[in-house]
TrEMBL record:
Gene3D superfamilies: YVTN repeat-like/Quinoprotein amine dehydrogenase. Residues 46-203 form the PorZ N-terminal beta-propeller domain. This is ABC transporter substrate-binding protein. It comes from Flavobacterium limi. InterPro entries: PorZ_N, Quinoprotein_ADH-like_sf, Reg_prop, Secre_tail, WD40/YVTN_repeat-like_dom_sf. Keywords: Signal. It holds the Pfam family Reg_prop. Residues 1-21 form the signal peptide. SUPFAM superfamilies: NHL repeat, Quinoprotein alcohol dehydrogenase-like.
Length: 760
């Protein structure tokens, strides 16, 4: 016999901050895929993929809860609000459970199920059922008791044959018995029995695969996996209604029974008479998939897999309204592009061999000051697997999105206007599959100083393309530099200050090209060929000191000076060597690097495939931050992309499970001191952050004095912003008063004086 959880609760208490977070974070999550819903007083709580939101019916206010607040980035599978304890329980597919105390906002991260010695694939939490102060947690291995008062687990019931694990989808309490809908039967046990850990106390009521069981006033209703609805007759469940589709959710709310399928919600009164039928075509269209439904007052809320939560009156056939927070189309953002005022994101992807299959059919998202604008797939002319996006620096209303299958999509004033492909441009389709197969693979893109758009076109001879400002296309052959250009897939492209195009590939390292003299250079693995750790190069960035940073699937390399491109026959990179525990180590040794971004202070933000984000100093010798799911709000350690708003210093980090941003202070230097500003100003009592002085030129001297001229702080700017912690050289907090900020250029040719008020 397998014993239950009679051990001490393994719990971690979440704070609303993390070990490295006197820092400021912001979350940008998708709320489109609704996993479950629950009622909390006058609010509906909806669980999306890895975030919660609630809408108050009295005030119409919407509240979100994300990893920024302490949730996990793992996938949510169930949510339940206990009115008696005023606690919200969040269950996850990996067995994690988070208990939110709505009275004070604290969170408990309960890891008992995760730590249970069971196969990881059977720890999913499917359902919460409350009875007499206990929560019965239905899991893919059995049932677990959880005490809401003590926040401790009790017994675990393995109720399969001979006490084996069995997937329990839902439980219900009815006439003194606990009923469990499982993957092989409906089983029941007397709730007064003190030995329910003994599988023999659980008897089979009906065999078969069951998706749900629910108490509905004086009835007990169950649905099997085939969508056949049954009623309990004191001995067994008798089928009486065949649904056209399998059920996705069954629940009883306020004397109504809600049966949800992908295409419809059926509402029955307590006489089991159908009182309302809601089809997906009545809510949006036939492509909409329902996941769950609940009732608050007279308002029915229906969760969907693709478009969030919809609400309407139950008694009156009013139109359904979408009621969810603004967000991107999906959490798995593959690539970003950021300007001072907008952010664009795309969702296509490819595997390690640059294979886009299975092809993705997603749209494009734009974040601006007013919120998110989502362009659906239906508007992008059939462009599949969109893997990159770039904004024209000379015209922010002109955007280009790279499809790794369909070509190049042009967007003007937020509307897709043309899809460039093999028929209407200089782009080419790969040919090795056959002459009739069209596959135009575009990825890396960059604008040069003249406004020409350079692109990579994979698996063809002429792999480098340019769309000139006059609308003409030109091609550059890669046959002179690559052994088999028709096998080359390009991962990234960047252009340095000399106009050299740097192109990374998954099989042949990095190639540099400059049209002045039509010069090509290659950087490969091997000490005599460029010193890359491997020829699978994934990410490129040129920093403010003309160094090319190269990410590969096996580590990091730096080309010390891109200015040597024309003069050196063989370009050689070097690793960053750091001292760790007294030993020389290679920075990010063997790490699979997915993204590199350079901030305004020339620090490097480096994303990895499974180890989170590293922020290193200008020369890489100091790791200033290492953010993971364990010490930050990162929803996943798999980083897809990193981009930085040069004006604000905000660092956007796209992961496989959502995007967050870090409110940094490293902004790009300005050309003069005309736009220097200080924030916050005044600094009010209770403010614990730093004072930012922004709009600086590079290497500006900044001195801060009190009103009597006593110096309290001095620094030299790196980039466009510096921070002051409002102390006198770190020794003590300065007193209330007005402080003078004197700013001067390195050569003394330009000065500026500002004031900041401190109120303690």
């Amino acid at each position: 016999m397998k014993k239950g959880f009679l051990s001490i609760l393994l719990v971690l208490i979440f704070q609303n901050s993390f070990s490295q977070s006197n820092l400021s974070w912001q979350g940008y999550f998708s709320y489109n895929e609704i996993k479950d819903v629950s009622i909390a007083g006058t609010s509906v709580i909806a669980a999306s993929e890895n975030a919660l939101f609630s809408k108050n019916s009295a005030t119409n206010s919407v509240k979100t809860t994300t990893t920024i607040d302490g949730l996990s980035g793992q996938t949510i599978s169930s949510v339940y609000y206990s009115e008696a304890s005023k606690k919200t329980l969040v269950g996850y597919e990996n067995g994690l459970m988070i208990v939110i105390n709505e009275k004070d906002g604290t969170m408990l991260k309960v890891v008992d199920i995760i730590n249970k010695q069971l196969p990881s694939g059977i720890k999913r939490i499917n359902h919460f059922m409350e009875h007499n102060g206990l929560i019965y947690v239905s899991c893919d291995f059995g049932i677990v008791q959880f005490n809401l008062t003590t926040s401790q687990f009790g017994d675990t019931y393995f109720i399969g044959d001979a006490g084996t694990e069995i997937a329990v989808r839902q439980t219900a309490f009815f006439n003194g018995f606990i009923y469990a809908a499982t993957s092989s039967s409906i089983r029941r046990a007397n709730s007064a029995n003190t030995n329910l850990v003994d599988y023999n106390q659980w008897s089979v009521v009906n065999s078969g695969d069951w998706s749900s069981v629910e108490t509905f006033d004086s009835e007990l209703i169950a649905i099997n996996s085939g969508g056949y609805v049954h009623r309990y007759n004191s001995n067994s469940f008798i089928g009486f209604l065949q649904l056209p589709q399998p059920s996705t959710d069954l629940r009883a709310v306020n004397h109504n029974l809600f049966i949800t399928t992908a295409g419809a919600v059926y509402v029955y009164n307590n006489q089991m008479i159908l009182s309302r039928q809601i089809l997906n075509t009545q809510v949006l269209d036939g492509n909409l998939s329902f996941t769950c439904a609940t009732l608050l007052g007279d308002i029915i809320s229906v969760g969907t897999k693709e478009n969030g939560l919809f609400s309407s009156s139950l008694s009156v056939s009013n139109p359904f309204e979408n009621s969810m927070p603004s967000g991107p189309l999906r959490n798995n953002i593959f690539a970003l592009n950021v300007t001072p005022s907008v952010l664009w994101s795309v969702y296509g992807d490819y595997d390690g061999r640059m294979n886009p299959y299975p092809l993705d059919s997603y749209g494009i998202s734009k974040l601006e000051e007013s919120g998110w604008l989502n362009i659906p797939y239906e508007k992008v002319f059939g462009a599949k697997s969109i893997v990159n996006i770039i904004v024209n620096p000379n015209d922010e209303n002109q955007v280009y999105a790279s499809s790794n299958f369909s070509g190049l999509l042009k967007i003007e004033n937020n509307e897709p206007s043309i899809l460039y492909n093999e028929k209407n441009s200089g782009l080419e389709t790969l040919t090795f599959v056959g002459p009739n197969y069209i596959d135009v693979r575009i990825n890396g893109a960059a604008f040069d100083k003249s406004g020409n758009l350079w692109l990579t076109n994979s698996m063809i001879d002429n792999g480098l393309k340019v769309l000139q400002t006059n609308g003409q296309w030109q091609s550059v052959s890669m046959k002179t530099i690559l052994v088999r250009p028709q096998d080359a897939s390009y991962t990234d492209l960047t252009i340095d200050k000399n106009g050299t195009k740097w192109i990374s590939m998954n099989t042949e390292g990095v190639v540099g090209f400059n049209e002045k003299g039509n010069v090509f250079k290659k950087i490969n693995a091997g000490t005599d060929a460029g010193n890359l750790p491997i020829n699978n190069a994934t990410a490129l960035a040129v920093d403010s000191k003309n160094q090319l940073w190269i990410g590969t699937t096996k580590g990091l390399r730096v080309l010390s000076n891109v200015n040597n491109f024309q003069s050196e026959n063989q370009l050689n990179t070097r690793p960053i060597i750091i001292m760790e525990d007294g030993l020389a180590q290679e920075l990010l040794y063997e790490q699979s690097i997915t993204a590199i971004a350079v901030d305004g202070s020339n620090n490097k933000w480096i994303g990895t495939a499974d180890s989170g984000v590293f922020m290193v100093s200008q020369n890489g010798q100091e790791t200033k931050y290492h953010f993971t799911i364990n010490n930050s709000p990162l929803p996943a350690n798999a980083i897809n992309d990193i981009k930085i708003n040069d004006k604000t210093g905000e660092v956007f980090i796209a992961t496989s499970k959502g995007m967050i941003s870090f409110k940094g202070s490293a902004t790009v230097a300005n050309e003069n001191l005309n736009n220097v500003y200080i924030y916050p100003n005044p600094v009010r009592p209770g403010y614990s952050g730093t004072v930012k002085i922004a709009g600086l030129i590079d290497k500006a001297n900044v001195k801060i004095t009190d009103i009597e001229g006593n110096l309290v702080y001095e620094t030299i700017s790196e980039g466009g912003t510096i921070e002051w912690d409002t102390t006198a050289f770190g020794r003590y907090k300065v007193a209330s008063g007005v402080y003078m900020v004197f700013i001067s250029a390195q050569d003394g040719g330009e000065t500026k004086v500002k004031k900041v008020m401190i109120i303690r």
